[in-house]
Design brief:
Layout: E1 13-16, E2 21-26, E3 31-36, E4 43-49, E5 52-56, H1 59-66, E6 76-78, E7 84-91, H2 105-110, H3 120-129, E8 143-145, E9 148-151, E10 157-160, E11 168-174, E12 178-183, E13 198-203
Antiparallel strand pairs: 1-13, 2-12, 3-11, 3-13, 4-5, 4-8, 4-12, 6-7, 7-11, 9-10
């Protein structure tokens, strides 16, 4: 599934089926609402400057400038050039991950031992972004919406069930013209061992 024109989608709720992805334009000042319709479902999000896809969302810079690992309401998401791409306006969950890479065929092969692995969020993101000229090697660490990663004092971590319940959402406002990609995550552990859809809506900014 790939949505290419924000003018056709503004104000409508779009469904990303389980284990699929989408990409679309989000213009400066517009808002993106990502909704978990059934609960406990992660959505990987990427953002690229619509006018220069070499400028891309940066986990390292966003976490560094915030001086914390878990971003929520009021926090900006920065690019690799230290420009604000998106700002979190509302967040009914308050726990998301910005450390772990999108799941992929290699994830399922190495961690789960799958012999015929699903292409995962990485493959879904690459497929959705291909029409915009983004190559797989340009895909960075995603902002993993609703993903619940808990870090122990010794640095080890666990991926636990998302805290999101049915209808929970996060709302972003774009600070530049963007190409955004979203998934309904494909990793069993991330989604409490069930695959469900993700909804999103593009809204007019206030």
């Amino acid at each position: 599934m790939m949505i290419a024109d924000d003018m056709t989608t503004e104000g409508r709720r779009i469904e990303i089926p389980a284990r699929h992805g989408a990409a679309f334009r989000l213009n400066r000042g517009q808002r993106l609402r990502v909704i978990d319709p059934q609960g406990e479902q992660v959505s990987d999000m990427l953002a690229f400057n619509a006018h220069d896809i070499n400028e891309v969302i940066s986990s390292g810079r966003s976490l560094d400038y915030a001086s914390k690992l878990f971003l929520s309401t009021g926090d900006p998401l920065y690019s690799n050039r230290s420009n604000i791409m998106l700002k979190i306006i509302e967040d009914t969950v308050g726990r998301h991950d910005f450390l772990l890479t999108p799941c992929s065929k290699d994830t399922f092969r190495i961690i789960y031992g799958d012999e015929n692995p699903h292409q995962g969020c990485f493959g879904n993101l690459a497929h959705a972004l291909e029409p915009y000229g983004v190559t797989p090697d340009q895909i960075p660490t995603a902002f993993n919406i609703f993903m619940n990663v808990n870090i122990a004092a010794d640095g080890s971590f666990t991926v636990d069930a998302p805290k999101s319940q049915a209808g929970d959402h996060i709302l972003f406002e774009a600070h530049m013209d963007l190409i955004v990609a979203l998934t309904a995550c494909s990793a069993l552990q991330s989604n409490n061992y069930a695959f469900k859809p993700i909804h999103y809506a593009i809204e007019t900014g206030h």
